[in-house]
Amino acid sequence: MVLLAPCLLYVTKHNIRDNANRSVERNVVRHEHVRTCSTGAEYHRRDRSSDLNVADSVCANVRSDNLKFFVSEHPDRDWAASIIGRRMQKAGRVAHLVRIEDESDVVFSIEDISTRYTLREDSDSILRTIVVKISARNRSASPSGLMLPVPSLRSDHVISRDVAEATQSQQHSGSHGTVPPPPSSFWDDLAQPVIFIAAAATTVLLLFTVRSQ
What we know:
There is one protein chain. Helices cover 42% and strands 24% of the residues. By secondary structure, it is α/β, with parallel strands linked by helices. Strands 1, 2, 3, 4, 5, 6 and 7 form a seven-stranded mixed beta sheet that branches. A hairpin with a 5-residue loop joins strand 4 and strand 5. The longest helix has 35 residues, at 4-38.
């Protein structure tokens, strides 16, 4: 038992560290959406002079200290609304989320909040793409319903398959996606099944041969 104690202690510490690392990695996806939505990382647009986030773009175009905003129906509506509201407050505005569109000054329509995975030539790694696309409409403008210029945001990262599986977050619909299986080879598609079938047939034949003798 004295000899086992250091080994058990090492294994326990290793497991605790592993679980902590996975918890941190899972938060990466959620935090990347927050960062992309609220601070703006890489976008589809290459004009870096428009390097503004969704909420800042709205605040720059709507001159009002008090903003009532409405967010369209979406599975991640509350998540997006909380991020937008905090960002508006950080910009010095008093932001109020309303549940009725007609009571709002600004309407945010969520077009896409998603995490996607794409195969790469290196089967051990995968491309993770995080997209946040939200449009904004100014109902307090004249004419009412003026569309506001807001950026579409995108963040791409190459990660390992193990990290992709470990960091899938089920907390929000947009913070996880389907990880495609690695591409199959000739061995997977044909050679391996043929060998397995041949081995099974040979085993059965040997059994019958032995019994008949």
